[in-house]
Queue: 2 jobs
Job 1
Amino acid sequence: ILGAELEIWHKIDSFESIVWQSELLYKNQDSYDRNIDQAGYYSQIVYKKERFGFGVRYDRIYKNRDSLPENLYRTTVMSEYRFSQYSRLRLQYSHDRSLIVDGERKSVNQLILSLNISAGAHKEEPF
């Protein structure tokens, strides 16, 4: 398994930033009588201003088993609000074209609302 990562932060001012993150993974595996190559990547950009964040992400599998198409992808948009450094509310929508059922490609649309809370002792604020 080989991989590469890229992360670029640009701080616009003390309350505003843009982050670009990408990752590529490649796997070469000898399996019984054949060699299997798999690879994929994601790239996302997130803009943050004060307590708000907005982002887009693109995932793609471009090498896969012979029986599957090579252009399997997912696109995602998200918006989040951070109540504090320990909690955030996120709304995320994904359009996924990577699902294959009985040899037929299916679209999956997801809408996710999540609340993340970090509780307990923290390095900055011991209890």
Note: The longest strand covers residues 16-31.
Job 2
Amino acid sequence: RAGSASTAGPYDPETVVSIELGMRSDWFNNRLRLNPTLFWTKYDDKQEAVSQCVADTNCASFETLVENAAGADINGFELEFQALLSDQLTLRTNIGYIDGDFTSYEVPDLQNPGTTIDVKNQKNLIRTPTWTVATGLDYTLLIDGNSDLVFSGSYYSISDDRLQVNRDYYGRDQVDGYHSVDLSMSYNYEGSSLPGKFTRLSVGLWGKDILAKDDGRIANTLDAGLFYLNVTAPRKTFGIDLIVEF
């Protein structure tokens, strides 16, 4: 944190140039949807935290400021794919790829006051997993004109991700990627025969990450200086949903 009002700011705006090239298309009488997208993003004067000596302390104490210290490039593509394999069966897929990194990260050179050094090789551009894949099937079984059963199965995968800007020698700045298989079944009814003023009823059973062998996974990591703190998330979970509309 800033040690005085004079060092607390202000700082200049960061500049982002983003270019997207994509297509939105439906084929075969709207039975196939294909939406590819390429993107290029360039940051200049990116606002990042920078540590520096507190004035008049001979580096006996430090302060952390927000400065326009960095530049970064983020490039990649996204692909959305959806196919109606039959009147009841739908395949859906989303694939994302990201290549992102700092192009510069200037911090004060403590050995040479008044100058800066580039430490981009010691920094992570956070929350930029290389690959994200989600795919699944939905099967709808019509019971009558007012109700149906929907069965869904999904697979999700995400690459390792860096969640702390400062790189850690022991890899504690990283959260491992994971895979998840999810299943669900729901009964849906919509009509005027429900009691009272209810117009829609949905009851669902679901299971998330059903093939997981571990009880939990590390979802976030926090740099506390001398040590790291991990935030966990449950893996294999099951539940019931009840939705009513009126």
Note: Residues 1 and 126 are 21 Å apart (CA to CA).
